[in-house]
Predict the 3D structure of the following.
Amino acid sequence: MYNYLLGKFEPIDKIMIKDVRHSDLQQLINDHWEHATLCKQMNMALRAIFKAALNDGILVRNPADKLELPVVQK
């Protein structure tokens, strides 16, 4: 599953992790807005990646915090 999700992050794969902005991540979500479950999975993966960067001292804030997600239809 992570390999599939990482493929969705291709638009930001050339940006250094310290230079990724909240708006870059929100655009990734917006590009897949019609797939609410995928957006939720992307959000979880992004939060984990940037949390690890925070713990390693690479970042001082998590750009994946407070991303707007589509509502999952039951």
